[in-house]
């Protein structure tokens, strides 16, 4: 499939990037679709592909994001080049469709083709409703997958049509369904309401309050290691660090914490899509938000180059298998520890029918603390939650 026709080239002069400095920079190494060269990058293997979204008609609040991607590029291109062999493509900006549904459909087609080419897609701009497009792309290639949303809300308002505050409902209701798990990282209780907290629990999805996450940011590592798609609402970052959001909040993650989470996502061998949504340049203060997003994206791309190719499903020789018998519960809990990265997984038993459908989801990323919990003869909370989901 030729995806070139979906894009308009970027204007390097408007980004303000000039080569020639003595320090190698990302802008010197990225293969971009720009007006100067007029050449569309070759998508033919493992890479990180940047896609600008300029159509914000799906946002629940007024979102003028026509320059969002270019603003992030202004700060990303001058950053130091990443010397770990990561191939970076900048495909340009997606041409808006006649309707927002046309734009969503176009992104789905593009993302599906990039998945087929084993590329990681990074979208910049637009409303978070484009997460639906990424979901549909996974469905096109037949992949049951996990979505992790760094978001202060659940975006499941039943009274709304498809937009950035109700995209999750449309994914849940889709049939046949290709979503295995949804994880919210950093929700703020006063934004969601108790009835939606209970709904997420009834659906056996995962949701973690901002305060709980910030107590120990390492808690986010296995959550993001388990995600195929990472969807970010910029409003999850506090206004002091990211003011360019149409619905900002004084509370949220610090910029450093956000960079750390994107690094965890980049290190994950599973993550194949990242969306940076709800960035409104008209509300930015001296480019502060664009600058922060560029730094976070740098950490993500740098971490992609440091992936360990951890795959406990196939590469059993590089893993230590540990069985912990829980005598009081008459069950054995099986853990795997990577010899390459020292990361942990926990195995969840299930029926043969569930195993055929969810075989890529039977080993759940976890922390050493889950192993310690099992050593105390306690069923790890993570194991129990996934056991119920797979055997219900």
Strand content: 15-25%
Q: Which ranges are low-confidence, i.e. pLDDT below 50, for 5 or more consecutive residues?
A: none
Spatial gap, N to C terminus:
40 Å
Order of helices and strands: EHHEEHEHEHEHEHHEHHEHEHEEEHEHH
Give the structural class.
alpha/beta
Binned, the helix content reads 25-40%
Number of DSSP strand runs? 14
What Rg do the Cα atoms give? 21 Å
* Shape summary: globular
How many strands, which pairing sense, and closed or not: the largest β-sheet?
Answer: 10 strands, mixed
Question: Total number of helical segments?
Answer: 15
Whole-number mean pLDDT: 92
Could you explain how this protein is built, in words?
It is a single chain. The longest helix is centred in the N-terminal third of the chain and has 17 residues, at 100-116. Helix content is 33%, strand content 19%. Strands 1, 2, 3, 4, 5, 6, 7, 8, 9 and 10 form a ten-stranded mixed β-sheet that branches. Helix 3 crosses helix 12 (288-304). It has 15 helices and 14 strands. It is an alpha/beta fold. The chain has helices spanning 12-15, 26-29, 68-76, 100-116, 131-140, 167-173, 189-192, 194-202, 210-215, 220-225, 255-267, 288-304, 352-358, 368-375, 381-390, and strands at 7-8, 31-32, 48-53, 88-94, 120-124, 145-150, 179-187, 206-209, 229-233, 273-277, 319-326, 331-338, 344-347, 363-366. It is globular, with a radius of gyration of 21 Å.
């Amino acid at each position: 499939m030729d995806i070139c026709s979906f894009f308009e080239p970027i204007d390097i002069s408007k980004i303000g990037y000039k080569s020639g400095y003595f320090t190698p920079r990302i802008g010197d190494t990225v293969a971009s679709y720009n007006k100067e060269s007029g050449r569309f990058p070759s998508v033919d293997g493992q890479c990180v592909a940047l896609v600008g979204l300029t159509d914000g008609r799906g946002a629940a609040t007024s979102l003028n994001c026509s320059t969002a991607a270019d603003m992030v590029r202004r700060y990303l291109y001058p950053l130091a080049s990443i010397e770990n062999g990561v191939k970076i493509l900048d495909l340009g900006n997606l041409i808006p469709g006649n309707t927002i549904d046309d734009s969503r459909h176009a992104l789905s087609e593009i993302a599906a083709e990039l998945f087929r080419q084993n590329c990681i897609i990074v979208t910049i701009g637009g409303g978070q409703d484009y997460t639906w497009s990424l979901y549909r792309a996974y469905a096109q290639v037949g992949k049951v997958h996990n979505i992790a949303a760094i978001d202060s809300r659940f975006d499941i308002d039943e009274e709304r049509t498809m937009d950035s505050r109700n995209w999750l409902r449309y994914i849940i209701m889709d049939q046949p369904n290709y979503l295995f798990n949804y994880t919210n990282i950093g929700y703020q209780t006063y934004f969601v309401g108790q009835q939606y907290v209970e709904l997420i629990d009834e659906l056996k999805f995962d949701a973690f309050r901002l305060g709980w996450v910030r107590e120990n940011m390492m808690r986010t590592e296995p959550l993001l290691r388990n995600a195929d798609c990472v969807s970010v609402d910029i409003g999850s970052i506090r206004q002091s660090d990211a003011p360019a959001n149409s619905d900002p909040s004084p509370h949220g993650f610090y910029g450093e914490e956000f960079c750390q989470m994107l690094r965890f996502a980049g290190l994950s061998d599973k993550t194949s899509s990242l969306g940076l949504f709800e960035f409104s340049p008209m509300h930015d203060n001296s480019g502060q938000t664009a600058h922060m997003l560029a730094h976070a994206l740098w950490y993500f791309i740098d971490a992609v180059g440091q992936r360990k190719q951890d795959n406990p499903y196939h590469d059993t020789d590089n893993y230590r298998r540990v069985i912990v018998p829980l005598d009081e519960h008459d069950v054995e809990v099986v853990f795997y520890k990577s010899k390459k990265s020292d990361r942990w997984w926990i195995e969840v038993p299930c029926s043969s029918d569930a195993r055929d459908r969810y075989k890529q989801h039977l080993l759940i990323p976890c922390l050493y603390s889950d192993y310690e919990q099992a050593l105390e003869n306690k069923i790890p909370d993570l194991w129990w939650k996934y056991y119920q989901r797979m055997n219900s």
